[in-house]
Specification:
Residues 131-268 form the N-acetyltransferase domain. By secondary structure, the protein is an alpha+beta fold. It folds into 2 domains: 5-118 and 260-264, no CATH class; 125-231, Aminopeptidase, CATH 3.40.630.30. It contains 8 helices and 10 strands. The strands form 2 sheets. The protein has a 7-stranded mixed β-sheet with strand order 4-10-5-9-8-7-6, sandwiched between helices. The longest helix has 15 residues, at 214-228. The N and C termini lie far apart (45 Å). The model is unreliable at 10-16 (pLDDT under 50).
Length: 268
């Protein structure tokens, strides 16, 4: 029987214990794979801000120790003021590393919960991947950014920020895309290889060309590239509501590692 998004949510909520070392490691590589322009620490809280890009991964307060709940109300207010200076409401990213005292506080304050996301992992040694690369990565960041924005039908004003984010990625990364002369860019994916881990970022397929196998075609090329470079485990993040993408990842052997969600400060 297929696992639905609701099933995943209930299963996650009922888990009595999380693999916190794995969560910490995946969070760390995630930060390196998608670097924010400004990162500040308050104890174990990471405050990530990026003025030119709206991504919540780049603009959120990320608690990294469940036992760090000293002066939470004061520290939350202080962090929220940093977001106010950027002209946006504060956002907290709740992972299994967040203190329950902090989460209870933002619930009491009426913060809004949204975007439950699944972090999934795959053993690349067991993954059924092509023997050869169907697509080679490009080193042209500008061309990749143009393709990614076109596939996502995103605002062109995001180009400078997105190019800056990708250029700031320190681990080796492969920029993959599929396009043709008639339709232009059809699919993109960014794969970041951080030692034995490979992060899959920004997998997108043009709306007019979905359900044609392009997603699995470009994803398997990226994973094959990472495995050739000695990556042993792949990881990715996908919204719980994105059932087609989750089904694709399930087919390739990805399994849930943990969930996270966001909380947004109530606007007066």
């Amino acid at each position: 029987m297929a696992t639905t998004g609701a099933d995943r949510s209930l299963t996650q909520a009922s888990l009595p214990k999380q693999n916190l070392p794995l969560v910490r490691r995946l969070e760390a590589v995630g930060f390196r794979a998608w670097p924010a322009a400004s990162v500040q620490y308050d104890g174990s809280w990471q405050v990530r801000l990026t003025a030119g890009h709206p991504s919540n991964r780049l603009n959120s307060i990320v608690p990294l120790d469940p036992s760090d709940h000293r002066d939470v109300e004061i520290r939350l207010e202080k962090a929220s003021r940093k977001f106010e200076a950027y002209g946006r409401p504060a956002v907290v990213r709740e992972t299994p590393l967040a203190s329950r005292i902090l989460i209870d506080l933002i619930k009491e304050q009426g913060w809004k919960r949204f975007d439950e996301t699944v972090v999934m992992v795959c053993d690349l040694s067991q993954a059924d991947l092509p023997d050869t690369l169907d697509h080679l990565p490009t080193h042209d960041v500008g061309r990749f950014v143009d393709a990614n924005l076109a596939v996502d039908q995103a605002q062109l004003s995001l180009k400078p920020a997105l190019a800056e984010i990708i250029s700031a990625i320190k681990p080796p990364c492969g920029l993959f895309m599929i396009d043709d002369a008639t339709h232009g860019p059809l699919a993109t994916v960014l794969c970041v290889q951080d030692n034995d881990l490979a992060g899959v970022m920004s997998l997108s397929v043009a709306g007019s060309h979905r359900r044609k196998g392009l997603g699995i075609e470009i994803l398997t090329s990226a994973l094959r590239w990472a495995r050739m470079r000695s990556a042993r485990t792949a990881w990715l993040q996908v919204k719980l509501s994105n059932a087609p993408a989750i089904a694709l990842y399930d087919r390739l052997g990805f399994r849930d590692a943990y969930h996270y969600c966001y909380w947004q400060e109530r606007c007066e």
